[in-house]
Amino acid sequence: MNADARYTGAAIALHWTGAMLILLGAALGLFMTGLPLSPAKLRYYAWHKWIGITVFLVAAARLAWRAATPPPPLPQATPLWQARAAHAVHVLLYLLMLAIPLSGWLYSSATGVSVVYLNLVPLPNLVAKDKALAQALLVVHQSLNLTLAMMVAAHVGAAIKHQWIDRDGVMARMLPRRRAS
Amino acid sequence: MRLAAVLLLALAPLAAAQPVLYDKSEIRFVSKQMGADVEGRFRRWKADIDFRPADPAHSHAGFEIDLASIDLASEESEAELRKRDWFDTQRFPLATFRSTSIASTGENAYDIAGTLAIKGASRDVTVPVRLRKDAAGNAVAEGQFALKRLAFKVGEGPWSDTSAVADDVTVRVRITLGHAP
Question: How high is the mean pLDDT of chain A?
């Protein structure tokens, strides 16, 4: 695999920033919901929302970057079904990275709690306060996250297979470049 | 609660009050949580209003708000607000407002001064109100005022931390009065 087949430095940085934020946001989300109500819990909710909006922004930046600098193609020998599966998972991952923060913002709006990104940028409420709608949106938010968890498992599983079973360098294209390799 | 009901019944025949159209009236509030607006309202309250636009000096307005009927972001936060640190609705089920003077401040504009009592604490407040007619010809009075929740010990203990929940609360009232019988 030649050096041209790597993702660009910006694409790699955005990928791993997004990945880290998604893990952090998901962990915080799972942790905070079970806590008894306290000032700390309100703080965690605010941070969770800020992380989610950042995930959305990173995903949008990645889509823009992808459009400008298309990602390297898969190896010639990739079976068609794998290429199609990889494409489908990537499309879903992008859709979920955009849809999950939006569903959270919608949910927050429906509970009557507005979002102020980083305590600086007030976002408008997308819907009026409505408990029944909030309940439905929470289920949507959770279901989308469950779907994301499955897609991430498929994505990571495939990367590991490429790296240690196929040994075809597909995963290495998204890793920061090592000094002597 | 029962005493309040008896009081209201006793007061009712005395006042030549206009009937409050509760389905067209609301008592809402906005507080700030982590810098973001949080909307809420009270589902159950009673008002005893005798408003004479041409004779504001002989008008009066009284409110009794069932604090346990709070509608907030979630059932969890509503339950929290009923606890001792917040409204302590077991001991202080009602918030009351009694006007002490009503004065005209311009065309269809009035200042309603009175005493607001929450959780055993009383404060003088002045509520600027604007009057208009709705399509059905009912009088609609709208006003808002700011209060400091800590002046009423609403949010004690860990909740006195105003970086999580701000001290300032904006109360918005809309009252629609039907025609006097």
Answer: 94
Among B130, B151, B163, B97, smallest CA distance to A119 is for: B163
Would you call B77 an interface residue with chain A, using a CB distance cutoff of 8 Å?
A: yes
Q: How confident is the model at residue B5 (pLDDT cuts 50, 70, 90)?
A: low
Can you spell out the DSSP letters for A135-150?
Answer: HHHHHHHHHHHHHHHH
**SS (HEC) of chain B:** CHHHHHHHHHHCCCCCCCCECHHHCEEEEEEEECCEEEEEEECCEEEEEECCCCCHHHCEEEEEEEHHHEECCCHHHHHHHHCCCCCCCCCCCEEEEEEEEEEEEECCEEEEEEEEEECCEEEEEEEEEEEEECCCCCEEEEEEEEEEHHHHCCCCHHHHCCCCEEEEEEEEEEEEECCCC
Taking the C-alpha atoms of residue B179 and residue B134, their distance in angstroms, rounded to an integer, is 12
Of B49, B166, B146, whose CA–CA distance to B99 is shortest?
Answer: B49
Domains of chain A: 3-72+79-174 (1.20.950)
Residue of A39, A122, A131 with shortest CB distance to B164: A39
Q: What residues of chain A, 114 to 143, have a C-beta less than 8 Å from chain B?
A: 114-116, 119, 122, 129, 131, 134
Rg (CA), chain B: 17
Q: Could you report the per-residue pLDDT of B61-96, keeping only the tens digit for each? A: 999 999 999 999 999 999 999 999 999 999 999 999
Residues paired with residue B27 on neighbouring β-strands, in sequence order: B173
Complex prediction ipTM: 0.81
CATH number for the domain spanning B86: value is 2.40.128.110
CA atoms within 13 A on the CB side of B175: 23
Over residues A87-101, the pLDDT tens digits come to: 999 999 999 999 999
**Chain A contact for B72, CB < 8 A?**
yes
**Rounded distance, CA B110 to CA A87, Å?**
65
CA-CA distance, B179 to A143, in Å (whole number)? 51
| Residue B78, both tokens | 């509503």
The boundaries of the domain holding residue B117 are 2-177
Q: How many folded domains does chain B comprise? A: 1
- Number of C-beta neighbours around residue B56 at 10 A: 17
